[in-house]
Each structure stands twice: as structure tokens, then as C-alpha cells.
Amino acid sequence: MNLQQLDILLAVVAAGSFSAAARKLNKAQSAVSHAISELEIDLNLQLFDRSGRYPVLTEAGARIVAQARLVRRQMQQLSELATDLAGAVESRLCLAVDDEGQLPWLAPVLAELAQRFPALELQILFPLLEDLTRLLDSGNADLGICFQPQQAGSQFLRWPLQQLKFAAAVSVEHPLAQLAQVTVADLQQYRQLMVTGRGESAERQRGRICSQVWWLEGDMAVLALLEQNLGWAWLPQTLLQQALAEHKLTQLQLKDEPSLLPVQLELWQHQTKKLGPAGLWLRQRLLSLHDGGKSGTA
Q: What is the dihedral of CA 263, 267, 268, 271, to 10 degrees?
């Protein structure tokens, strides 16, 4: 038994089939099947029930997978500790952030990072929804900040960050702005502006109320179109503050529904990603700002 076999096992569980795992790992399906078979021989256990169309974990397999995830996390922690003790600072760090609307609270942390690691080359990307997941999966991003999804892959370590409050907002000239209280039926009469990535995942439908929707790639684009009176939208209160103060937008008061929707931000890291001192510092600094834990959940 070796770590490569455990990685393949976790990839099969995350992907849902041998063929999907093979594509993700850029391996032949036969190589994936062989690795799982060899692992079953080494453990003297049947990990998957292969009688159906897709492999299903046996009871023993589920327990082995839980232990494999623990081993993977421990190996990552050992590797990070060794890097930290060696004192070798990485030359480059990539942070993927779900939408540039997070920059107001994130920028002061990045200023601290620049002071502490002046030679570090930092890349900040703003992928949305499943685009962020792909960057972490491919290893092209070291850490990710995103909204808590309805479903998340088991290959990620996840820590809670701050909770943002989303408010429904419109231009002060919009018909909805004239109502003291707004019902869901009122909202459904008008165009909804929604954030989308470049895929067609079910995640992008979350929060959709209206049949008529314009899809936009980012909160800043939604904000700009709100100010042009092109619809209504849910946006973080922090992003709305200036437009509300300038009386360009108004926050809707909903009837029979919460007027503010809490949405949890999370910090993500692929469980196989090895962070250097700068990445470890940034991770711990982000967690120290909020009520994050000290260990991730897969």
C-alpha cells in the first residue's frame, strides 16, 4: 500500500467512477482500476461494490476512505512543517477569490503579506463557482476564498471565515423601490440579476426567484447594472454601502421573508497542496480574523 493508491482511491470517491477519476488524474482507466484492485489485495478487503453501473463503497471501503483522508491530511501537515522548519519561502503564491467584491476586507491582509514577504510574487484570480474549484483541483491556485456551496468535493480542506449579509437591492428609480414592503410575487415580476461562472452547474441557480434572469460574471457587474435600473439583485451589504449612501440604490424590505440573507465565506485548500511559509502565514492570518477553526474539514 502506498500514498499513490490512496490518492487514486480518494479520486474515485470524489469523481464517482473509475472512468471519471481516470480523466481527472490523466491516467488510463485500466491503471486506475488496477491500482484499486492492488489496494484491495494489500488490505484484504473489498472497497467497492462493482455490481451496478457505478462503483459503490462497501461499509469497509467507507471506513478506509475516512482513514485515507486523515493520512493525507497528516502527510500534508508533515510536509508543511518540514518546509516551515527549513525556512524556504516560496517564490510565488496564487490566491483564488470568488469575486472581486471581497477585496475591501481582504486588502489589509494582503498589505501585511507584502510587508512580511516582500519578494513574494502574488497572483490573485477572481474565478466564480465551479471555476474556483477547477483552479484548486489543477494545482494552479494554492488557496481559495469562496461562498459555502451546496455540495463540495471531499478533496478539499475547508475552514469557515466571516459570514456576509446579502440584501435585495434596486435602483431608486425602479418600481420595486416605491413599495414599503416587497413580496416574492412582487420580485418575480421583474428581471433578476445573478452572478454566474462559465459552467452550467446547479450551484448557479441558488437564490434564483425569477423566470427572467440576466447572468453576469461578478458582483461588480451586477452592481453597475443595478445602478442602470436594469433589474434587482442580491448583493453583499458591504458592496452596497456606497451606492446606498449616494442614494443610487435602495435596499428592499421583504414581507414574510428575511430581508438579509446570511452567506458563509470559506477558505479552501486542496488536501494534496503543499504550502510554503507565505501560504501558511496567509492561511493562518485569514483564520485569525474570523471564527475559523485550526483544522480543515474534508
A: -140
- Sign of dihedral through CA atoms 99, 100, 105, 108? positive
β-pair type (156-171, 233-236): antiparallel
**pLDDT tens by residue, 19-56:** 998 988 889 999 999 999 999 999 999 999 998 888 99
Per-residue burial over 127-161, b if 16 or more Cβ lie within 10 Å, else e, is bbbbbbbbbbbeeebbbbbbbebeeebebbbbbbb
Tell me the three cell numbers of residue 292.
475559523
Pick from 269, 276, 267, 278: which is nearest to 79 by CA? 276
C-alpha distances (whole Å) from 222 to each of 122, 219, 298 are 27, 5, 32
- pTM (2 d.p.): 0.64
Residue 203 pLDDT level (bands cut at 50, 70, 90): low
Q: Kindly report, residue by residue over 226-259, the tens digit of the pLDDT.
A: 999 999 999 988 889 889 999 999 999 998 777 7
Transcribe 99-126 into DSSP letters.
-GGGHHHHHHHHHHHHHH-TT-EEEEE-
Q: CA geometry: angle at 268 spanning 267 and 274, to 5°?
A: 120
Q: Are 272 and 156 in contact (CB under 8 A)?
A: no
CATH hierarchy code of domain 3-83: 1.10.10.10
Torsion of CA 158, 164, 166, 172, to 10 degrees: -140
Per-residue model confidence as pLDDT tens digits over 118-134: 888 999 999 877 788 88
Does the 163-262 domain belong in CATH 3.40.190.290?
yes
Q: How far, in Å, CA of 160 to CA of 154, rounded? A: 16
**Fold held by 89-162+264-289:** D-Maltodextrin-Binding Protein; domain 2 (3.40.190)
Comparing 89-162+264-289 with 163-262, is the CATH topology the same? Answer: yes
- Strands 156-171 and 192-195 turn out to be unpaired
